[in-house]
Amino acid sequence: MAKTILVRGIDDSDADWLAAAKPPGVSQTEFIKQLIREAKSREALEQKMNDKTKTKSAPGEFRFIDLFAGIGGFNLGMRSLGGECVFASEWDKYAAQTYAAWHGPDHIYTDDIRLLDHEAIVPEHDVLLAGFPCQPFSIAGVSKKNSLGRAHGFDDAKQGNLFFSICKIAESKRPPVMILENVKNLKSHDKGNTWKVISETLDALDYEVRSQIIDAKHWVPQHRERVFIVCFDRNQFLPEEIEQFSFPKPPSKGPKLNSILEDEPEQKYMLTDNLWKYLQNYAAKHKAKGNGFGFQLVGPNDISRTMSARYYKDGSEILIDQPGWNNPRRLTPSEAAKLMGFNQRFAKMSGFKNGFPQVVSDTQAYKQFGNSVSPLVVAAVGGEVVKVLHARNLRLKKGKSK
Ligand SMILES: C[S@@+](CC[C@H](N)C(=O)[O-])C[C@H]1O[C@@H](n2cnc3c(N)ncnc32)[C@H](O)[C@@H]1O
Fold first, then answer.
1. What atom of ligand 1 comes closest to residue 95's alpha carbon?
2. I need a surface site. Which of 18, 175, 224, 339 has the fewest CB within 10 A?
3. Residue 343, class by beta-carbon neighbours within 10 Å (0-12 exposed, 13-18 middle, 19+ buried)?
4. Which of 338, 324, 319 is nearest to 276 (CA)?
């Protein structure tokens, strides 16, 4: 039943705000009802995000947040080490669909991360994970003074770069550890300016930064070099704990494509005569001009080139040779999953008996795998990070603060 509420004693400034904020054509009563509904739904979201996550983890467990989450390569790698995901951010509708299907629909924030009210929404966590897009910065550098000294920290409009969304959360939530991932050329991007801003900003936030380029070919049959950046909060770790960290030693012998190729791929993955002819002509034309650009044909005993987000176009960067039987073919989406390391072990961990289900079109699936991080590499890097985190948690448990 509808109730009537009379409110007396409203401050002048509040009454003025109400009059100014009320959209034209909406009655004052309807506007106040709207404000109440918004406050209620916000409270519910905050409750959902913060339930059970107000406190940091005990030794042996850790909580993580997954920013620029894509389909959750970071999520799988860190969950396999005993971590619990308490928040994810991904604005692409299709990637969020896959993420929800594979990791559960809870905790996904699907708006632009730059609009995120991190103070209210992001729960406490031990590890911040982010495979952020690489963009040039509009400013030359960020010193400790100008990044942290100002009242609004990173809210400067000029700093709308997505990297700063990570920094805002780091500044307010102070995760003990962050693991960031990016393309190999991050350090040379924009003539070194991008890396300069990133490393100076992390340093100004009082994080000790370690970085290394890692080739996923040691874990999956794909040459895929990415830079991993591991950051430890200097206020939460002893220097000797940080010194314990080293990047993982890769397994000595990586797998070949025969470990992921399927026996009976559907006909739709075979190249048509026209496309195959076109790709061969295109490659010949470029070869004649002295360019090496073209398709790559691979077989069961090879490893592939890097699969990019453009693989859906014609698949030419990785074509499976089928001599004496058919034209070459592109990878099937489930082969693409395994090429990235989204394997049966991770599928089983997520409750799927026969691999990860595909909940989007082939086009979206290829894009998603091409953009993702290999969960196997994440598990290897994360495993080294977790050792350091546990050493610190144990020290804290014994009551020894920094
Ligand atoms: C390089 S991909 C990261 C993929 C992820 N590591 C994985 O394993 O799938 C970057 C992701 O950031 C998302 N993204 C880009 N800009 C964003 C924004 N402003 N807010 C939220 N997500 C964003 C993209 O949709 C994309 O999925």
1. 27
2. 18
3. buried
4. 319
Which of 99, 72, 74 minimizes the C-alpha distance to 380?
74
Alpha carbon distance 141, 194 (integer Å)? 9
**Whether residues 102 and 222 fall in one domain:** yes
Q: Under a CB-based contact definition with an 8 Å cutoff, are residues 103 and 97 in contact? A: no
Burial class of residue 263 (count of CB atoms within 10 Å of its CB; 0-12, 13-18, 19+) = exposed
Mutating to test ligand 1, I would choose from 371, 376, 381 the residue with most ligand atoms within 8 A of its C-beta, which is 371
**110, 96 in Cβ contact below 8 A?**
yes
pLDDT digits (tens, 9 = 90+) for 210-252: 999 999 999 999 999 999 999 999 999 999 999 999 999 999 8
Is residue 317 in a domain? yes
| Mean pLDDT for the stretch of residues 283-291 | 82
Beta strands in 274-349 (DSSP E): 297-298, 319-320
Q: Where are the alpha helices (H) located in 51-92, listed in sequence order?
A: 73-79
Residue 393 in any domain: the answer is yes
